[in-house]
Design goal:
The protein folds into four domains: 236 residues, P-loop containing nucleotide triphosphate hydrolases (Rossmann fold, 3-Layer(aba) Sandwich); 64 residues, no CATH class; 167 residues, Rossmann fold, CATH 3.40.50; 61 residues, no CATH class. The protein is 36% helix and 21% strand. The chain contains 22 helices and 19 strands. The protein has a six-stranded mixed beta sheet with strand order 6-7-8-3-9-10, sandwiched between helices. Strand 18 and strand 19 form a beta hairpin. About 2% of the residues have low confidence. Pfam families: ABC_tran. GO terms for molecular function: ATP binding. This is ABC transporter ATP-binding protein.
Length: 553
């Protein structure tokens, strides 16, 4: 169905190719998982399948890409629209209509599908992806996860032979991600659709893959083969594989079920070595919501929310798509005005960058009424769409502007970016970066100001495991220095690694608030892989297991 024959892609102005001498075949009816570190060329590989590379992106493509018998050098994307459906990393950038239902129908209209067939497929897709309740909603009013499901649905309604997806579950809550992956499984096994997807959250998808394509980046060759065989040596691997490597299991398990079967002896060894977690002593309150009610138009997103965030905490905000998480973050920076109740944030005592766990504080600010130049000394937000913060012509300029804006020593922002994503080229335009690299740049810009309260909305979208580990280190350093971090995320593995406290929202209400282990360990939706494998033992991460085994030896 798909053949890459010695494919090399070089973008205009770049001295090194994004892909080098790539050859592989994917037969009909397989699910192929593309893995690799952030910026390694995964998106380039996916875009080459439907001809976006090079017909839309520019650059040169050497070698051949053949899809269902059509050479992409001779067939432009429009000539492959009936064969290949594609969903990019940024769903909003690909939308062409105004509402969910119109977007689902658009591709079928373009292909001349009869009206009665269109209606049936739209209804099937609305039900399949849980979008029926937002069918008439404007696309711009959707949450990030709802947008992603709509983009997937728009590709599915055309019934393509090949479906290409770039980070399809990155903005989805665990339940919605499982629904989407189950739908993809049905397409593969029941309809013979060939699915190619790139995903950093391997814990969600590796067990479903028929083959893995590893894109290492640089001059290294692309490898393809059996998932279990490649995972044995792959530099990026989900927690279930990392645990298997640590325990010496063979063959390596790819699913929680297989790992639980292999973990009987490990659970016995660990039963007397349970981890001891000491909660950090919270400092002064940096943010407070009191009976907060907020929303958009007639829709109420937050209903009587009361909570406090204190210095020294790393708080994870979790819940289904549309639960109100982004609305809470936007309320804390004044982008959403409370309908009733109150929001207050606390700047540093002297307008400086750091509040400090025990230092003094300036007067509390109401974010929707505060002047921006005062608010930036109290709170900083990295939004779901990081490109909204980026406006300079190059990465170097973006970092230099951030240093000037926050009055920090030259090179401070670039040093942060180097820690998060060391491979980013200073000369690149921010919009030419991969989704993960753009996120790292936006994170660096906001963290450069080191506000007392740091808000992160889906901070791990597009990040590989290495970049996430580096982000965890930075967030721990911020908390230790007396800042507070509030991150809205669906990444349960990230929460297990870094969060000291978890808040769970449902339908705009706070339904759970407590220590991380207490809230997520027993949750079917939010428990990390290690917790599921070793239950009822209270381990959350591979690192905790490694520490316990090291102490036992």
């Amino acid at each position: 169905m798909i053949e890459f024959d010695r494919v090399t892609v070089t973008y205009d102005g770049q001295t090194e190719p994004a892909l080098r001498d790539v050859s592989f075949e994917i037969p009909e009816g397989e699910l192929a998982l593309v893995i690799g570190r952030t910026g390694s060329g995964k998106s380039t590989l996916l875009r080459a399948i439907n001809g976006l590379v090079p017909h839309f992106t520019g650059g040169t493509l050497a070698g051949r890409v053949v899809v269902n018998g059509r050479d992409t050098r001779l067939h432009r994307p429009r000539d492959l629209a009936d064969v290949v459906g594609i969903v990019g990393q940024d769903p909003l950038a690909g939308f062409v209509t105004d509402t969910v239902e119109d977007e689902l129908a658009y591709s079928m209209e373009s292909l001349g599908v009869p009206a009665d067939v269109m209606r049936r497929r739209v209804e099937e897709t609305l039900d399949l992806l849980g979008l029926a309740d937002v069918r008439d909603r404007p696309l711009t009013s959707l949450s990030g996860g709802q947008r992603q499901r709509t983009a997937i649905g728009a590709a599915l309604t055309a019934h393509p032979a090949v479906l290409v997806l770039d980070e399809p579950t990155s903005a989805l809550d665990p339940q919605a991600a499982e629904e989407v992956l189950a739908a993809l499984q049905r397409l593969v096994h029941d309809l013979g659709v060939t699915v190619v997807l790139a995903e950093h959250r391997l814990e969600r998808v590796i067990q479903y893959a028929d083959r893995v394509i590893e894109v290492p980046g640089g001059s290294a060759s692309v490898a393809t083969g059996d998932p279990a065989a490649l995972m044995a040596t792959a530099p990026v691997a989900p927690p279930v594989v990392e645990l298997g490597r640590l325990a010496g299991w063979s063959p390596l398990p790819l699913s929680v079920r297989d790992a639980r079967r292999a973990a009987v002896a490990l659970r016995n060894d660990l039963s007397a070595r349970v981890p001891v977690r000491v909660a950090p002593e919270p400092g002064r309150v940096l943010a407070r919501c009191n009976d907060l009610v907020a929303g958009y138009g007639p829709t109420l997103a937050l209903r009587g929310l009361t909570l406090e965030i204190a210095a020294g905490e790393v708080v994870a905000l979790m819940g289904r798509n549309g639960a109100g998480k982004s609305t809470l973050l936007n309320s804390l920076v004044g982008l959403v005005k409370p309908r009733s109740g109150s929001v207050a944030v606390t700047p540093g005592s002297d307008g400086s960058r750091s509040a400090g766990a025990s230092g003094g504080a300036g007067a509390a600010l109401a974010p929707d009424k505060a002047r921006p130049k005062d608010l930036v000394h109290a709170v900083g937000l990295v939004p779901q769409e990081p490109a909204d913060l980026l406006y300079a012509a190059t990465v170097a300029d973006e970092c230099a502007h951030a240093d000037d804006d926050f009055g920090v020593p030259a090179g401070s922002c670039r040093d942060l970016l180097r820690r998060l994503s060391p491979e980013v080229d200073d000369r690149m335009h921010p919009r030419d970066l991969s989704e993960g690299q753009r996120l790292c740049l936006a994170l660096s810009v906001v963290l450069c100001g080191a506000p007392p309260l740091v808000l992160l909305d889906e901070p791990t979208r597009g990040l590989d495991y290495g970049a996430k580990r580096r982000l965890v280190t930075i967030l721990r350093e911020l908390a230790a220095a007396g800042h507070a971090v509030l991150l809205s995320t669906h990444d349960v593995e990230m929460v297990a690694e870094v969060a000291t406290r978890v808040l769970v929202l449902a339908d705009g209400e706070l339904v759970s608030d407590g220590p991380t282990a207490t809230v997520i360990a027993g949750s079917p939706a939010f428990a990390p892989q290690v917790a599921k494998i070793l239950a009822p033992l209270p381990f959350l991460t591979v690192g905790e297991v490694a520490t316990a085994l090291g102490e036992a030896s």
